[in-house]
Amino acid sequence: MATLIRIMLIGFTSMFAVVFGKDFKKTKDANQLENESFKKSGAIGFVANFADTLGIGSFAIVVAMSKALKLNVKDKHIPGMLNVSCTVPAVLEALIFITSVKVDPITLLSLLIAAAAGSVIGAKIISKLDESIVQIVMGVALFITGIVMFCGLPWISLMPGGGTALGLNGTKLIIGIVGNFILGALMTAGIGLYAPCMAMLYLLGMSERAAYPIMMGSCAMLLPFSGMEFIKEGQYPRKSSLGITIGGIFGVFIAAFIVKSLPINILKVLVICVIFYTATTMLKAGLTKLKENRAGSMDLNVD
Asked: Residue 228: CB partners within 8 Å, gap ≥ 6?
């Protein structure tokens, strides 16, 4: 099963790389790449995916750092940037860490396919939303991410504990499929899948050993599909996404093979604080812009 997953991931990621490469070259040849430094976006990718490999997550860190470093990216393009730029690093993580899959194969494949399908639907919706709505969605997504991370802190311990099951059957399998489909769709809006997927599987009685490959495999499986959808719609920053990808690859390898341990829980607290600040900023900007758009629309109707 581990070999089959690796083959599928390599195949889907190769398709993604071809689509990404062609779109980047076409945009570059047309001199339409955004004016941004590879160094800045590469640093963001390195830090975010270094943290992701150690179990902290990457999406929220990419958003927070891109705001702090004033990355030249429209808020509307942030969901696309997340899904495109984190695809290759996430797949590398899966290829490195999924060495043996001790989980029911039907459960594993069903949930991975559900997450991928949800990501395609979610990307289609998110890529067509107005910028103010995207800002609000991203703000809410960051708040949810921060709350989930807070609940998972060891001295808070509000996350459910796992059971002993290695697979799901009947109603539980249906709930798992529907749940992972929804989580796959939400990931395109910036809500990381790791923590909520693990919580769902624990609630359904699965063991931590079985939940881990589903959680990691779901992210790695869905990102090539959601990434290609955002590329197709053109709703992502090409140069920044490539820089984050390259930096992310280095971050994954260094975290996986060189850095064995860090004070992860202290780092999580710092990340949570930054996430809540960034969420507040994006919600404020989105609500302000939405109010201005509605006011402008009312003025046009009066005229």
From this structure: 15, 16, 19, 20
Digit-coded pLDDT (tens) for 167-220: 999 999 999 999 999 999 989 988 878 878 888 898 899 987 788 888 888 999
pLDDT in tens, 15-70: 999 999 999 999 999 888 888 889 999 999 999 999 888 878 888 899 999 999 99
- Which positions ≥6 away from 224 have C-beta within 8 Å? 12, 13, 15, 16, 87, 91
Question: pTM to 2 decimals?
Answer: 0.84
Q: What is the DSSP letter of 163?
A: -
* Residue at token pair 């690093």: 89
For the chain, the first-to-last Cα distance in angstroms comes to: 64
The beta-carbon contacts of 98-101 under 8 Å, at least 24 apart in sequence, are 98/2, 98/5, 98/6, 98/213, 98/216, 98/217, 99/2, 100/2, 101/1, 101/2, 101/5, 101/213
Q: Are 91 and 68 in contact (CB under 8 A)?
A: no
CA angle 99, 9, 191 (to 5 degrees): 95
**Identity of the amino acid at 184:** G
Cβ atoms of 239 and 38 closer than 8 Å: yes
157: left (phi over 0), alpha (psi -120 to 50) or beta: left
CA separation for the pair 173, 97 (Å, rounded): 25
User: Coil, helix or strand for 101?
Assistant: coil
Q: Would you state the structure tokens that stand for residue 7, as one six-digit string?
A: 């083959």
Distance CA 182, CA 197 (A): 10
List of residues 6+ apart from 12 with CB closer than 8 A:
221, 224, 225
C-alpha angle 127/128/134, rounded to 5°?
70
